[in-house]
Amino acid sequence: MTETHAKPLIYCFSGSPYVWRALIMLEEKGLEYEAKWIPRSSGEHRTPEMLALNPRGRLPILRYGDLTLYESVAICHFLELEHPEPPLIPRSAAQRARVLVLTSEANYLDTETWDALLFALGAKNDEAGPEPRRQAYLRLHAEVARWEAHLEHGGHYLAGDAISLADVVVFPGVAFLVRTGLTLSKRTPKLASWYARMLERPSVQASWPPHWRETAGSDAGYDAVE
Ligand SMILES: N[C@@H](CCC(=O)N[C@@H](CS)C(=O)NCC(=O)O)C(=O)O
């Protein structure tokens, strides 16, 4: 029988940028929800029960009424459609398309982040010398520069003067980079201001990854190749 959830229930890993997107969205919509935090090392997200919810064994997973959803961007879109106020996707076709372009482009930031991080963590080794790592860091900087360029329009947020789904989707990835050692300042002043603005949002503060409150971040050394 399908389980029905009176309050949205979201399964979370602390520090996952994908999970964080969905949490920010729930907060921006002012929804009451329950967050179930799973320690990543527990493997609980791969039990048969959890794999029945998301066969990929990944989080976030949202249970909403009798609906089960996974994939962070899909969850965000669902919440927008189900709770249109306050709007996080603009009304006009052109603005709406802009938000979709930016949310799609967030994948490139993810790719460059994970690539650089794998070098930083030593998961990709340096047998070929320091150059592959340097190149990965440079690609990351080039990608970050694209997001600086996206803010050239002078608005407060990625798609203009109002927060949108684009900010919700992109912010956790940038916060993750900052936590692992990226400095946003000299080369990316607009991104630094946007980041500071996002930090002030109650939705971001309320959904801040619990273990980030207790432990310091790391320094992957991305800045060393600037
Ligand atoms: N495309 C998925 C990606 C979700 C994802 O990869 N989540 C990671 C956490 S950052 C995960 O659950 N990994 C499984 C694991 O660590 O075993 C989304 O946007 O929701």
Q: Give me the oligomer status.
A: single chain
Could you say what the CATH topology of the largest domain is called? Glutathione S-transferase Yfyf (Class Pi), Chain A, domain 2
Largest sheet: 4 strands, mixed
Helical stretch tally: 9
Q: How would you summarize this macromolecular structure in one to three sentences?
A:
By secondary structure, this protein is an alpha+beta fold. It has nine helices and four strands. It has helices at residues 17-28, 48-53, 72-82, 93-120, 131-150, 165-179, 189-199, 202-206, 210-214, and strands at residues 5-12, 34-37, 61-65, 67-70.
Structure description:
The protein folds into two domains: 5-82, Glutaredoxin (3-Layer(aba) Sandwich); 93-225, Glutathione S-transferase Yfyf (Class Pi), Chain A, domain 2, CATH 1.20.1050.10. The chain contains nine helices and four strands; from the N terminus they run E-H-E-H-E-E-H-H-H-H-H-H-H. With 226 residues, the chain is α+β, with helices and mostly antiparallel strands. Helix 1 packs across helix 6 (165-179). The model has no long low-confidence stretch (mean pLDDT 95). A hairpin with a 1-residue loop joins strand 3 (61-65) and strand 4 (67-70). Helices cover 50% and strands 9% of the residues. The protein has helices spanning 17-28, 48-53, 72-82, 93-120, 131-150, 165-179, 189-199, 202-206, 210-214, and strands at 5-12, 34-37, 61-65, 67-70. It has a four-stranded mixed beta sheet, with helices on one face. The longest helix is centred in the middle third of the chain and has 28 residues, at 93-120. The protein binds glutathione.
